[in-house]
Design brief:
Number of strands: 11
CATH class: Alpha Beta
Structural class: alpha/beta
CATH topology: TIM Barrel
Number of domains: 1
Helix content: 25-40%
Radius of gyration: 18 Å
CATH superfamily: NADP-dependent oxidoreductase domain
Shape: globular
Order of helices and strands: EEEHEHEEEHEHEHEHEHHHH
Length: 271
C-alpha cells in the first residue's frame, strides 16, 4: 500500500495529513487559538514527522487559522502542500452560512493568499455549494482564479456525485472532501468515482466522533485511520488535534498497514 498520492497529477503528498480546524478558539472553531505559540509548535512538529499536506479554510476562525499556518510555516519547507477553502462565512460560533458568489470567492482567495503568505494556493476548494448561487458560477470563479495563477488545483467539498461531474466539465477537479468514515459510508459511490478518475478523496469526520474500539477490536489496534488508508489509494486522511501526543499517535496509526483479513473484519464489524 502506497502512503503517497499524486494530487492533481503533480504534487506528491503523504496520505497522512493534518486538518487544522481545531487550531481555533472554542466553541465553534471561532476566534484565535488560545495558545498561539503552542499551535505553531504543533504545526511545525507535524511537518517534522512527515506531514506535507495541511488543510484549512477561511471559515476556520474565520481567517485566523490561515494566519496561524502562515506564521508557523512560511517560508514553507519544500514539498509542503497547503489546501484551503472559500465559500462559507462565519460571523459567530453558531452563525455559519454559504456565500458562493464569484466576487466573494475571489475576495476570500486573495485574503487567503495574504494570510498563508503564498503567491499561489496549492489546492483551493469550494467549501460548500451555495443554494442561492448557480453551482457553475461558483466553480467557474475558482477556475478563473486558477487561470490567473492564484490557484494551482481546484477542489470541492460537501458535494454530490452529480456536482462533481458538473464541475469537471468546467475545470479539472483534483480533490473532493466529504464526510466519510468506517461507520458512515453513504459516500462509497463518490469514493469509488474519485478512485477511478484519479481524484484525491479527503474524508472529514474520519473518526465519526466516537471511539471505534467499542465497535471493532481490530479497529482499536490498527485505527480507523488505517482502515481509511486501506479503503482506497486516493484517500488522504486529515485528522485534527491540538495535542502533540495525539498528533504522533495519529501518524503512527496510519503507518500500520492492515492485512486483507483485518480490513475485511473491521469493515464487517461496523456494518
Amino acid at each position: 500500500m502506497s502512503l503517497t498520492f499524486l494530487l492533481g497529477g503533480d504534487l506528491s503528498v503523504n496520505r497522512i495529513g493534518y486538518g487544522a480546524m481545531r487550531l481555533c478558539a472554542q466553541p465553534g472553531n471561532f476566534g484565535r487559538f488560545t495558545d498561539w505559540e503552542a499551535g505553531k509548535r504543533l504545526l511545525r512538529r507535524a511537518v517534522e514527522l512527515g506531514v506535507n499536506f495541511i488543510d484549512t479554510a477561511h471559515a476556520y476562525g474565520p481567517s485566523c487559522n490561515e494566519e496561524l499556518i502562515g506564521e508557523a510555516l512560511a517560508p514553507y519547507p519544500a514539498g509542503v502542500v497547503i489546501a484551503t477553502k472559500g465559500g462559507v462565512e462565519k460571523t459567530a460560533p453558531d452563525k455559519v452560512f454559504t456565500d458562493g458568489r464569484p466576487e466573494n470567492l475571489r475576495r476570500r482567495c486573495e485574503e487567503s493568499l495574504r494570510l498563508l503568505r503564498v503567491e499561489r494556493i496549492d489546492l483551493y476548494q469550494l467549501h460548500r455549494p451555495d443554494p442561492n448561487v448557480p453551482f457553475a458560477d461558483s466553480v467557474g470563479a475558482i477556475a478563473e482564479l486558477r487561470g490567473e495563477g492564484k490557484v494551482r488545483h481546484v477542489g470541492l467539498s460537501n458535494v454530490t456525485l452529480a456536482q462533481i461531474e458538473e464541475a469537471r466539465g468546467i475545470v479539472p477537479i483534483a480533490s473532493v472532501q466529504n464526510r466519510y468514515n468506517l461507520i458512515e459510508r453513504a459516500d462509497d459511490p463518490v469514493v469509488d468515482y474519485c478512485t477511478t478518475h484519479g481524484i484525491a478523496y479527503l474524508p472529514w469526520g474520519p473518526l465519526a466522533a466516537k471511539p471505534f474500539a467499542r465497535e471493532a477490536p481490530l479497529a482499536s489496534k490498527h485505527g480507523a485511520l488505517a482502515w481509511l488508508l486501506r479503503r482506497s489509494p486516493n484517500i488522504i486522511v486529515i485528522p485534527g488535534t491540538t495535542s502533540l501526543t495525539h498528533l504522533e499517535a495519529n501518524i503512527a496509526a496510519g503507518r500500520m498497514p492492515l492485512s486483507d483479513e483485518e480490513f475485511a473484519a473491521i469493515t464487517a464489524s461496523a456494518t
